[in-house]
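[Structure tokenization] protein backbone as discrete codes

[Encoding] learned vocabulary of local backbone shapes

[Begin record] amino acids and matching fold tokens:

___
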Amino acid sequence: MTRRGFLTKTLSYAVKAALLGLAPVGPYLSARPAYGSSENTYVKTPPYDLHELVKRKVHHTENGFLNPFSSQTYGNPFRLLRWKLFSPNPFKSYYSQERVAPVSVDSKSLRNPEGLSVTFLKHASVLIQDKGTVLLIDPVFHSPFWFITDFTPFAFDPRELPGPDHVLITHGHFDHLDVDSLRDLPSDTHVISPLGYDYVFDGLPMKHRSKLDWFESYSDRERKITLLPCSHWTMRNPFMGPNRSLWGSFLIQTAAGPTIFVSGDAAYFHGYKELSREFHADLAIFNLGAYEPRWFMASSHMNPAEVVQSFVELNASRLLAVHWGTFRLGDEPVYFPPMEIRREMREKGLEDRLIHLDHGHSIFLNRDGSLKG
């Protein structure tokens, strides 16, 4: 490879990874060190409980936000270079077994006006129907970039899905906040997002928006949706730098009865045990994917063992893993996460609390949070 080719390839890797939230680019991407420490390389424990941290606005900066739960300063572009060009990939031999599997959705399962259903569409996109009200989380209906293979293309027009009353956005990385997918939605859709995304939504027809800081809520007469802290970061423009906008998890207290926790993209942090003292989640939806290699991904995404640990600390009743199978954003093959989370849950004696959904499939919950059928 020529020197020019090497530099071009390196820059291409850097930009792609930055836009998809896998790594920041450039020496300006340093953040204030987080508070405290733990035995984990990246996990930091602030000297305050979560509510006090938010009250003090520790996660706010002059130009945006920071992650107070991580030691990752995003200041070394050579980490990305090391991963893509010099780090051995033990998973390559498994890529030949990856298959494109078009996704269909049973239209009957989407007609649930009285109860509560959860449909895993693809990647981190989840559709929840709560007594006739439709919530859509992180809608991404196709690959955000031509160079990323979509292993779960829709076999239908996404406009055939029930029009959402509320769209919940966890953060701004392109595989979670996709402008083209949002344009497929009705203009009167209500958007619930963390702070700092006006520059995205001002260019879209959706003008009904609720912008939340951590522990702030949107409520209607029947349900309550709260943004919770988590350990992550966000960026949409590598030339502007990271964390101009906020990120978070969601707690959905449904009108149908059950409470649903949605992690969004998150690294492990010690807050799940604290959150468990504030609510009980009947269903915890955790993102699982893009977790290998650990030395590179641990500050952004949990691996299966960390998801199980977080699920246990959250003390939720059931676990559903999403964010797998659609895009290969880490080294692990797209079909590894569901196998590995099942093994981890089995080893902990928790397999009976694990829910597996193929893309396009649904579960139905009773008022007490138990599964129907």
